[in-house]
Amino acid sequence: MAMKRQRDDHALAKLMQAAQGGDTQAYVLLLKEITPRLRQIVRGQHRFLKIEDIEDLVQDILLSLHAVRATYDPRRPFMPWLMAITRHRLADAARRYTRRTAHELQAENLPVTFSDGGANMDTDGYRDPEALRHAIRDLPAGQRDAIELLKLREMSLKEAAAASGTSIGALKVSVHRAIATLRKTLIKES
Amino acid sequence: MDTEKLIERLAEVVEPVRPLPRPWIRTAAWLLVAIPYIALVVFVVSPRGDLISKASEWRYVVEQLAALATGITAATAAFAMVIPGYDRKFLFLPVLPLAIWLGSLGDGCVEDWIHFGPDGLSLQPDWFCFPAIVLVGAVPAIAMAVMLRRGAPLTPHITCALGGLAAAGLGNFGLRLFHSQDVSVMVLVWQVGTVFILTAMAAWAGQYLLNWRSIIGTNRRSALIR
User: Fold this and answer.
1) Is the Cβ–Cβ distance between B189 and B101 less than 8 Å?
2) Is B160:B202 a contact under the CB 8 Å cutoff?
3) pLDDT tens digits for range B168-196
4) Does the distance separating the beta carbons of A55 and B19 come in below 8 Å?
């Protein structure tokens, strides 16, 4: 087992030495060889992380290795060198994670149900579709078309502009004015 | 970005690099810059008049050799700290010469107290020490910073503290070649105090001088742009 590990380390050291000399093929081989091992180490130490976060950490370690590849001494074993970089990068990641979570607010019961006052916003207060229909009908033609295409038929701005033959800018202005008019009319009626 | 793609991009930008020499070889290279500069400063400021007679006083010689050895061992330790996989025991290299340096000064304080009583331990202001040590240690400190940045920023604060101790230790060695202040308590408080303050400042600066963010950022950009 120890012999195999030594042979393995020797092969990696040779690849690293070639990579330090600028050998692209050797560098690709080396990085592809160590990536699954790094992935396994990261997964082993941070079981709670999502796959994409593990991949981010692996990439971080690969970039670190690339940045400090001149610090590898070809007369010394490769794996302790790689493991030292990995250990420090994982410790940095853990520190970053701790800093980030320190500013997060954990809440068990968010007001998400209709019975909870905090979940009921003012916009939900008006519920008279008939009055809304009348108010839309009474809008000026341009504003009415804008509301119909963008809000009722749920077209995109581009589609609505093509359908109405007006510009996107004009549609934006019309819909903005229409909503302001509707708000005023409906508040007055209620 | 996909990891496979990142590997290909890194391989595309890989260029030949010269492996960093071993820490003691780098220390020798650093001394090749630091010692001539210190000699130049001592020559320009003019060496103390009693330097030749001082060279035969064992206490002065021990203190100077200990200060020099502290600087050299701290530099070796700093250079070892930026190489991944190096034994962390290197961190303790400067402990022995530093202990000899402080011990010798402490012994001097006790002797002064025995001979002169409380007057032997009286302190006078000696503000010259701080700027003088900064002046003598400036070029060694800059050379140290440049050389450390070629390594891996594994322990920025400790590495920079060692680098600062190395430069300030050499700075103090140079200072005592032209500054006639040999009262142990004065040397201990003003000169060694300055060395420790500069070491602490270097440790604080470590986070800015040595960090992964700056070196990886450059590589990430070059890998993503291509």
Assistant:
1) no
2) yes
3) 999 999 999 998 888 888 888 899 999 99
4) no
